[in-house]
Design a protein that fits this description.
Blueprint: E1 2-6, H1 15-25, E2 32-36, H2 48-59, H3 77-83, H4 85-88, E3 101-104, E4 110-114, H5 123-130
Parallel strand pairs: 1-2
Antiparallel strand pairs: 1-3, 3-4
């Protein structure tokens, strides 16, 4: 599973297309979960419906998109868990911008935290999917 905080008006927004391609290519063993958030630079101002429409029409997104959540300001419980070693048992992390990616194994355990600049097609992601 890849959990990623997303935004429609970000320099990393084109990663939607890469995430969708990854989702299609590895759909037998991968789920991508997009969590829109307006916590970074106000780059996700739209409603949940606006976000869904943007993602599907602009990037053909078919992977599950959640409702808009807090990541940094009043973090949603998912992001509280992902960012706290005390909760996830693996590592403390900090989401610094949109399109931060978390890799989770088939048991839902946190495996790795990847910053926004790491492409969904980076070797670290592809090697993880090949294991």
């Amino acid at each position: 599973m890849i959990v990623v905080n997303v935004a429609s008006e970000c320099g990393f927004t084109p990663q939607y297309q890469q995430l969708q391609e990854l989702y299609e290519e590895f759909q037998d063993k991968l789920v991508v979960l997009g969590f829109p958030s307006n916590d970074f630079g106000g780059q996700e101002p739209g409603s949940n419906e606006d976000i869904q429409t943007f993602c599907s029409t602009r990037y053909g997104v078919q992977f599950p998109m959640m409702a808009k959540v807090g990541v940094k300001k009043q973090p949603h419980p998912v992001f509280q868990w992902l960012q706290s070693k005390a909760l996830n048992g693996k590592m403390d992390t900090e989401v610094r911008w949109n399109f931060h990616k978390y890799l989770l194994d088939e048991d839902g355990q946190l495996v790795q935290s990847l910053p926004s600049s790491v492409s969904p097609f980076d070797d670290v992601v592809l090697e993880w999917l090949q294991d």
